[in-house]
Write a structure and sequence with these properties.
The chain is of the alpha/beta class. Helix content is 42%, strand content 16%. Strands 1-2-3-4-6-9 form a 6-stranded mixed β-sheet, sandwiched between helices. Helix 5 crosses helix 6. The radius of gyration is 17 Å and the shape is globular. It starts with 5 loop residues before the first strand and ends in a 6-residue tail after the last helix.
Amino acid sequence: MRFQRLELEREGPLLRVWLNRPERRNALDTVALEEIASLFGSLQQDFAARVVVLGGRGPSFCAGADRKDPPGRARVAGRTDVSERERRWLFQIGRRACRAIEECEAATLARVQGHAIGGGFLLALACDLRVAAREARFQVPEVELGLPLTWGGTARLVHEVGAARAREIVLLGESFDGVRAEALGVVHRAVPAAELDAAVDGWAARLAAQPELAVHATKTRFRAYAAADRLGDVSEDDADALAVASRSLAARTSFGEP
């Protein structure tokens, strides 16, 4: 399988997946999200991969949506035959990418440096474990930009950090570093940038060394609890919200610009 936006490295049971668009700070366009959804979906039948590390090439993990090619827009540009159902499906590519990461059968670990903004923040949040550089910058700027937080982000953030912290992160939209991210529960560990690779490699090795079936069964249970927490949360699938987001991104989004 060949990718335009991703780079893969295999080391025995460890698979490293790199967002590989450093000249754009790994900003997410339609192609990137489609490839993430496809790759993590395919890992359902890749029994050799027991641990997957998701990272970003260059100085940043992911700077969010690409303002020059907002996710989904490329598939409808210039078309007059797009039904509302197809439009809704196309603009949910970010949700499908996050869900594919979350539903990956292997244990997943986010390696975060530089920026983790908007959609990049949500990709990391979909991973089982997250390790960040203390100097990393996290932000969910959607509300400030006039956008609802979609991609299942609100429910996932509430489940991971609690409703009170989630409201603070989303409604205020403030930028915070890796140290604050650890205190909030957004990441599990924040380390000096020079120690990031060693910390990630250490955790990945420990996960790979654990009994395989026990890890898989435990992950399945955690995933079931998370799904139960999100039952009834359908607001983020609202077609009107997605349409607002798609229109606003073209006019206002700047956080994906390098």
